[in-house]
Design the sequence.
């Protein structure tokens, strides 16, 4: 997944494999395979760079995978996990 920013400043992640095309006129619009469109703050070269970085990370990670080892693959820093149940008081 790549993280991008809506025009209102909210961030979201999108699967780059589902992006059909990227348009820039003047806003950058991601057109997805299913027809959904997302207008984002990042410019065309930046979105292409995010996709290239993500794919490079996938390849680099695949080269170092040990069978049976679970790895988290992300280009977005992961926050500390939120417990499903409140801790005891």
Sequence:
């Amino acid at each position: 997944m790549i993280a991008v920013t809506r025009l209102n400043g909210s961030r979201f992640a999108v699967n780059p494999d589902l992006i059909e095309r990227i348009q820039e006129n003047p806003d950058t619009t991601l057109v997805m395979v299913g027809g959904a469109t997302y207008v984002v703050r990042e410019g065309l070269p930046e979105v292409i760079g995010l996709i290239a970085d993500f794919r490079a990370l996938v390849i680099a990670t695949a080269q170092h995978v040990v069978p049976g080892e679970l790895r988290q693959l992300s280009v977005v820093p992961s926050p500390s996990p939120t417990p499903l149940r409140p801790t005891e008081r």
Q: What stands out?
A: Residues 2-63 form one domain. The first helix runs from residue 44 to 63. The chain has a mean pLDDT of 86. Residues 62 and 86 are 36 Å apart (CA to CA).
